Amino acid sequence: MSAIFNFQSLLTVILLLICTCAYIRALAPSLLDKNKSGILGIFWKCARIGERKSPWVAFCCVLMAFSILFVQ
């Protein structure tokens, strides 16, 4: 089943995107900072969410991991 039609898979993909963008921005900030608008601006916005809301994102990642490992 596609991640678009399964809500839990969609949330997992979004969390992974946020975490990956924040990690890439920590390693190479110029890679994401030059694309603040347009379609590639989504990655910059995900990196900002990952930086500013990092305790909440980390909690959601732990909760999602628990859900995937023990509930499914």
TrEMBL record:
Please list every transmembrane segment annotated in the UniProt record, as residue ranges: 54-71
Q: Name one GO cellular component term.
A: Golgi membrane
Q: Supply the Pfam families for this chain.
A: DUF1242
Major localisation: Golgi
Specify the domain of life of the species encoding this protein: Eukaryota
**Does the keyword section mention GTP-binding?**
no
Q: How does it sit in the membrane?
A: Single-pass type I membrane protein
Q: Please state the span of the N-terminal signal peptide per the UniProt entry.
A: 1-26
Q: Which UniProt keywords apply?
A: Golgi apparatus, Membrane, Signal, Transmembrane, Transmembrane helix
The subcellular location is: Golgi apparatus membrane
Q: What is the recorded function of this protein according to its Swiss-Prot or TrEMBL entry?
A: Involved in the early part of the secretory pathway.
Q: Record's family?
A: Belongs to the KISH family.
PANTHER family in alphabetical order = PROTEIN KISH-A (PTHR13229)
- For this entry, the protein name equals Protein kish
The species this protein belongs to is Hucho hucho (huchen)
